[in-house]
Amino acid sequence: MKQITDYITNHKQRFLNELISLLKIPSISADPAYSKNVLDAANFVKLSLEKAGCDTVEVHETKGYPIVYGEKFIDKDLPTILVYGHYDVQPPDPIDLWNSPPFEPVIQKTELHPEGAIFARGACDDKGQMYMHVKAMELMVNTNQLPCNVKFMIEGEEEVGSNNLAVYVAENKEKLANDIILISDTGMIANEVPSITTGLRGLSYVEVEVTGPNRDLHSGLYGGAVANPINILTKMITSLQDEDNHITIPGFYDKVEELSKEERAEMAKAPFSLGAYQKALDIESVYGEKGYTTNERNSIRPTLDVNGIWGGYTGEGAKTVIASKAYAKISMRLVPHQDWREITELFKTHFESIAPVGVTVKVTPHHGGQGYVTPIDTIGYKAASKAYQTTFGKKPIPQRSGGSIPIVALFEQELGSKTILMGFGLDSDAIHSPNEHFGVWNYLKGIETIPYFYTYFTELMKDEN
């Protein structure tokens, strides 16, 4: 252990400087204006993997942004770990809510991060957590502690659906063959309460468009006589949930897994303070589906949320207009057994059916993915648990996450591999939000913990064989 901690101590500043350099690249995959920056980030990852000790590194072109593949192969008789991560980031909007520019990283102390946190878009999701694995690889190679083979697959389209990754995986099954997949794109309960994510929700993401008159109209001359697309869109969205916040789309809950009282009781053992939760978000009360706790609502229950809504005049001052069109982006988080394509079709059929006469409705599916649950009795989970125990001094808690990583289910389907989700971020790190950050302590703790996973996984695989 001292060898690992000494290496991290000696190279701490360089580890931080390299991550900061990566975070300065605005690799926003959703906006074509940043396409060169996304490619720059891919090249940064390529060079970093080469410096970390990979024998082979290649940038695989796709119809979208490239996939960076690297490997360090020691012996065909040793296990192989496949590391997945992504170098693209979410758009930083709204910019005016950031305390510092999103692509000019700064380290500041916070109540939860007394050693400092790196504030920048992508700090936690997922550049910081992905880069932990690159530095852990460097550490193991340079200290002669790499116990098995390792492969890296780092993509640039996770934030926009990973469509080209699915093609790459299907076409490269032999190259990507592995014994376990390791991902750090999740979080843990707290710095003093380590946890391993054992479940992810699926996702269906759509855009809706409501069209009324053939042009914008004067609200005085036409108000009250012509359907207003914005008014109608808001009514249609409101009808998607009832007074108990239960989703009203027919068939939506048909395949929802209902956890037993025993399973829900186990979940309830995880430390959670409702007061601290509300204080952190500056809200007076929580809100959600009747009959479920906050932690159940955001992990084992499906949801429907409006992520953006617009139409008409939104500039300075006033403009009395009835807009011709109104739009909204809507995401549905799904639980295991709900098929995202089926849910998308159910939404489309229902939303079109509730449109009143006088408007037309268009539903455009964007992307989605299946939910995922990993068992806690596998070698991979046991190795991760031992790794956390070694560096945190306590056993991690298995925890289902409300987030989605759609490609995890795809990996198991195409590669036949289980995935271990070793996240080191916190829920308060503001991923997808202004002022995203990642604790310096968390970043370095990940680099310290990951090598132990390699060691314990290799040992447990040998014991089984």
Summary?
The chain is α+β, with helices and mostly antiparallel strands.
Description:
The chain has 465 residues and is α+β, with helices and mostly antiparallel strands. Helices cover 34% and strands 21% of the residues. It has 13 helices and 18 strands. A six-stranded mixed sheet has the order 1-2-6-3-7-17, with helices on both faces. A four-stranded antiparallel sheet has the order 11-13-9-14. Helix 2 runs parallel beside helix 3 and helix 3 crosses helix 13. The longest helix is centred in the last third of the chain and has 25 residues. The protein is globular, with a radius of gyration of 23 Å. The two termini are 27 Å apart.
Core attributes:
single chain, 465 residues, alpha+beta, six-stranded mixed β-sheet, four-stranded antiparallel β-sheet, 13 helices, 21% strand
Name the assembly state: single chain
Query: In terms of per-residue confidence, which ranges show pLDDT below 50 for 5 or more consecutive residues?
Result: none
pLDDT averaged residue by residue: 95
Arrangement of strands in the largest sheet: 1-2-6-3-7-17
Give the percentage of residues in beta strands.
Answer: 15-25%
Q: What would you call the structural class? A: alpha+beta
Termini, distance in Å? 27 Å
- Tally of DSSP β-strands: 18
Radius of gyration (CA) equals 23 Å
- Categorize the overall geometry: globular
Q: Helix fraction?
A: 25-40%
Which sheet architecture does the biggest sheet show?
A: 6 strands, mixed
Counting DSSP H or I runs of 4 or more residues, the number of helices is 13
